[in-house]
Amino acid sequence: QVQLVESGGGLVQPGESLSLSCAASGSFFSVNAMGWYRQAPGKQRELVADITRTGSTNYAGSVKGRFTITRDNARNTAYLQMNSLKPEDTAVYYCNARVNRNWFGMDEPYWGQGTQVTVSS
After folding, report:
1. d(CA 14, CA 22)
2. What is the pLDDT of residue 40?
3. Burial profile 5-27: b = 16 or more Cβ within 10 angstroms, e = fewer
4. Distance (Å, whole) CA 67 – CA 85
5. pLDDT exceeding 70 applies to what percent of the chain?
6. Which of 23, 39, 64, 121 has most Cβ atoms within 10 angstroms of its Cβ?
7. Given its phi and psi angles, is residue 54 left (phi above 0), alpha (psi -120 to 50 degrees) or beta?
8. What is the average pLDDT value for the chain, to the nearest integer?
9. Contact, 90 vs 30, CB < 8 A?
10. Is residue 121 classed as helix, strand or coil in its secondary structure?
């Protein structure tokens, strides 16, 4: 079984920073792409940023230049550093990872439980 455990959400004021982490644990062969998605009330879940195993990154236009995604392959952990936060960044943030359970076959998507990020004065 594969679990993604997120941490680091909270309440901050506009302009402040917050860091999220997502650790994959359980029985698997490898963790491939990892990413962060978010879902605000009444809106669809959207991609925030993702990163390949080799470190290539992709960002939503709304966070480019403010958020940075990194990963530690040895710890199967992804991080999201969020700077210059805005009220519109308020959402539940979900970690996603594509995991190979075995050395053969396709990887599968897994989701974390979500962590609340609230930006408000």
Report:
1. 23
2. 96
3. ebebbeebeeeeebebbbbbeee
4. 9
5. 100
6. 23
7. alpha
8. 96
9. no
10. coil
Instruction: Decide: helix, strand or coil at residue 75.
Output: helix
Region of 71 (left: φ > 0; alpha: ψ -120 to 50; beta: rest) is beta
The pLDDT of residue 22 is 98
What are the pLDDT digits (tens) for 55-113? 999 999 999 999 999 999 999 999 999 999 999 999 999 999 999 998 888 899 999 99
Pick 1 or 52 by higher pLDDT. Answer: 52
Quick one: how far is CA 58 from the chain centroid?
A: 12
State how far the Cα of 113 lies from the Cα of 90, in Å rounded to an integer.
16
Q: What letter represents residue 116's amino acid?
A: Q
> 85 and 14 in contact (C-beta within 8 Å)?
yes
Smallest Cα–Cα separation from 15: which of 84, 114, 105, 110?
Answer: 84
**Tens-digit pLDDT profile for residues 20-34:** 999 999 999 999 999
Question: Rounded to whole angstroms, how far apart are CA atoms 15 and 120?
Answer: 10
Q: Whats the size of the chain, residue-wise?
A: 121
